[in-house]
Amino acid sequence: MADTYDILIIGGGPGGYVAAIRAAQLGFKTAVVEREHLGGICLNWGCIPTKALLRSAEIFHYAEHGANYGLKIEKPSFDMEAVVKRSRGVSAQLNGGVAYLMKKNKIDVIWGQAKIAKAAKGAPVEVSVGKSAKPAVEPQNPVPKGVLGEGTYKAKHVIVATGARPRVLPGIEPDGDRIWTYFEAMKPKAMPKSLIVMGSGAIGIEFASFYRTMGADVTVIELLPQILPVEDAEVAKLARKQFEKQGMKIMTDAKVAKVEKGSDGVTVTVETKGGKSETLKAERLISAVGVQGNIEGLGLEEAGVTIERGVVKTDGLGRTNVSGIYAIGDVAGPPMLAHKAEHEGTICVEAIKGLDAHPMKSTQIPGCTYCQPQIASVGLTEAKAKEAGREVKVGRFSFTGNGKAIALGEPDGMVKTVFDAKTGELLGAHMVGAEVTELIQGFVVAMGLETTEEELFHTVFPHPTLSEMMHESALDAFGRVIHM
Ligand SMILES: Cc1cc2nc3c(=O)[nH]c(=O)nc-3n(C[C@H](O)[C@H](O)[C@H](O)COP(=O)(O)OP(=O)(O)OC[C@H]3O[C@@H](n4cnc5c(N)ncnc54)[C@H](O)[C@@H]3O)c2cc1C
């Protein structure tokens, strides 16, 4: 029998490694078991490498439009291998950074596939670690120095932070060649001439935006009536208009019914509203229909842990129904976002310590999509606020009325705010346009402090910045807008 820990975390993604650091700060003897790569999907196949790809696309876009800024740039081109190499390099740098943080915080890293072997009331939980059962897409190389290996470990508290993987639709199974998931889409060997993206959530739209900007013929197919289905309808509509202006084809209320693979591409049968059907051809298809929690093979069912709708059921502080077993991040349910995973990790460990941990308020978790134009939101959409029976006041401010947006050459976009008409409470904020993913945090802080319109009116926003539109949008909701 190897070491006994206070807290052992299965999974070294943003949920797991942040929980581990907080646990170490609070004086717990801590270990993280990871089977593939520190930093999880976020650092290796999600948040970070996509943003690196999108940055290349953004710079390419500006180079193509240099004349708009009075610049003379010969026809720009790109080397896809170098673009991908940069993105992989950014991931590698950050995952090395996580290894450093583990060492600095004296957290043991155990390399292998973990499974809960025994969980009995009043006794430490036993975790067995064996060889990875999953062939790594691109395993961490080199494995960090000084890691522990296979064996059985004991811990008073075990936190499951095993993340998620691509959801697969029957009959449309990814093959790594014609039908891609985010793994293949992240490192294309060459630029596809044409591409169908199935699903228009954040992951689908970010890849659609990247490939379209780099010149591919892109069609997005969405089952629901609007793209970016969780976003405010007005924001999604404005984004769609921009994507279409860039040449993206978008089909909503459309279902991918069949995908046939050939030697030169895919033939996709799409059922549209009213029972019509259309056939599309493309070189590749990206399946971006969501993710599903990694709940299998962990000994959760044997331990009696409740699983609901494919994710581990927790109580808001990461506790499952089995004493000593916790779950955080993607495996504990939506929204499946890195910052939600990190925050849940912190809350979970602080609750174990007996600190005054507050369950996360799901309406205060921001969501960002880093396409061009960017999308960012927090809180209730106008429709959801009305559905909840709130009487609302809505403010809108267009990028065309903002000096900084004009100076940047980014006049397309909007900041929308939703307030409770009776109390003035800020219920939600929704934005589309340049850099809005950096702006949203202002509204997140405001909502956390239970802001009303009055505090926003009294806040001084620096000039000239895009943030001034946040002020103007709030003013607009109450008939006081200045620059419109
Ligand atoms: C293409 C893409 C783009 C994204 N962009 C964003 C974004 O911009 N912003 C954002 O907030 N979110 C984004 N996400 C989502 C984000 O990546 C996830 O929400 C986040 O990684 C979840 O963190 P986690 O710690 O719960 O799980 P993960 O990051 O999935 O980490 C889980 C870890 O557990 C390990 N593991 C699993 N099972 C075992 C086992 N049995 N034993 C040992 N180890 C195990 C895995 O190898 C993995 O390293 C994106 C996702 C994708 C796919």
Automatic annotation (TrEMBL):
Residues 5-345 form the FAD/NAD(P)-binding domain. GO terms for biological process: 2-oxoglutarate metabolic process. Binds 1 FAD per subunit. It is an enzyme of class 1 (oxidoreductase). NAD(+) binds at residues 199-206, 222, 290. Residues 365-473 form the Pyridine nucleotide-disulphide oxidoreductase dimerisation domain. Disulfide bonds join 42-47. FAD binds at residues 51, 330, 336-339. It catalyses: N(6)-[(R)-dihydrolipoyl]-L-lysyl-[protein] + NAD(+) = N(6)-[(R)-lipoyl]-L-lysyl-[protein] + NADH + H(+). The active site is at residue 463. GO terms for molecular function: dihydrolipoyl dehydrogenase (NADH) activity; flavin adenine dinucleotide binding. Keywords: Cytoplasm, Disulfide bond, FAD, Flavoprotein, NAD, Nucleotide-binding, Oxidoreductase, Redox-active center. One of its GO terms (cellular component) is cytoplasm. Its EC number is 1.8.1.4. It is found in: Cytoplasm. Its cofactor is FAD. Belongs to the class-I pyridine nucleotide-disulfide oxidoreductase family. The active site is a redox-active disulfide bond. NCBIfam families: lipoamide_DH. PANTHER family: DIHYDROLIPOYL DEHYDROGENASE, DISULFIDE OXIDOREDUCTASE. This is Dihydrolipoyl dehydrogenase. It comes from Fulvimarina manganoxydans.
